[in-house]
Amino acid sequence: MKYLVTGAAGFIGNAVCLRLCEQGADVIGIDNLNSYYDVSLKLDRLKRVENYPSFQFLKVDIFNRQEVAELFETEKFDYVIHLGAQAGVRYSIDNPHTYADTNLIGHINILEGCRNNQIKHLIYASSSSVYGLNDKQPFLESDPVDHPISLYAASKRANELISHTYSHLYSLPTTGLRFFTVYGPWGRPDMAPFKFAKAISTGKTIDVYNFGEMSRDFTYIDDIVEGIMKVLVLAPTGEKSETGQPNVSSAPYAIYNIGNGSPVKLMDFIACLEKEFGIEAAKNFMEQQPGDVTATWASTEALTKATGYRPKTSIAEGVKQFVSWYKQYYDL
């Protein structure tokens, strides 16, 4: 079997490439290596997989329709794990066209490659941010998701809707995974865990939004990868009839939350970081940022029922592993 992984130099994409390579799979990873955050970190991630003979990296921008089409036609993939996207809630407020180019046009280019080349199953990254103004928790896949509060969230919901169209029209099996605050070694510098670690380790003040009254369903990277591997072999076939629910369809289409299922208060997460660094952070309590939600909480019952997915990493252990990597990587 041959796999395409987009976003191969990204946090989740690189971890998926590594897992597939460890299993002996034939993997091509693509990434445009943009400068949204430190490119050297992306290149260092790629070093983790470059010595596997079954892995090949290609610098490809999914916005480039011709490059993507030629890649699919040449390589004849069996499965596609589409994790490449323009990430970030706050960045989308100031840079909307980047999200249109990558998350909308890029997503369609991947779908076109899949439908024209008999892909067995497309898995793609959605986000917990699609739940927007929903205040009923935990978030269920059957909940309405019609009120996003950032362009990033809107683009991810659009990905789900466009994917359903392709599943319906072309019988293309697609599965969208709504990721909930992924963290761990090799994480993203634009996310809170990384920002907090940098500030704590350098004696700087950390910005704590909504005066600390926030919680997130923090999910450790290894648990995320395990969930992706379980979903990979479970191509949807479609329900017998429409139900009116956003996650169920007569088309070969599925949507799953993938999270820890146990939200953690932001201040408790910070306390775990302080414990591992052995430093109490100076804190600057601030108002809520535009586009942010106060709390996320994933119901993972659907994914567990379908695949047996059960996250195993506690927040204490996950933070310990993250801080250990951070100290080693930055030679602290």
Describe this structure as you would to a colleague.
This protein is an alpha/beta fold and 332 residues long. It is 40% helix and 16% strand. The strands form four sheets. A seven-stranded parallel beta sheet has the order 3-2-1-4-5-6-11, with helices on both faces. It has a two-stranded parallel sheet with strand order 7-10. Strands 8-13 form a two-stranded parallel sheet. Helix 9 packs across helix 11 (315-329). The longest helix has 20 residues, at 96-115. The protein is globular. The mean pLDDT is 95.
Tally of alpha and pi helices? 11
Give the C-alpha Rg.
19 Å
Query: How many distinct beta strands?
Result: 13
Instruction: Please tell me what the overall shape is.
Output: globular
Q: Strand content of the residues, in percent?
A: 15-25%
Structural class estimated from helices and strands: alpha/beta
Largest sheet: 7 strands, parallel
Q: List the uncertain runs.
A: none
Mean pLDDT: 95
Can you give the helix content as a percent range? 40-55%
**What are the secondary-structure elements, in order, as H or E?**
EHEHEHEHHEHEEHEEEHEEHEHH
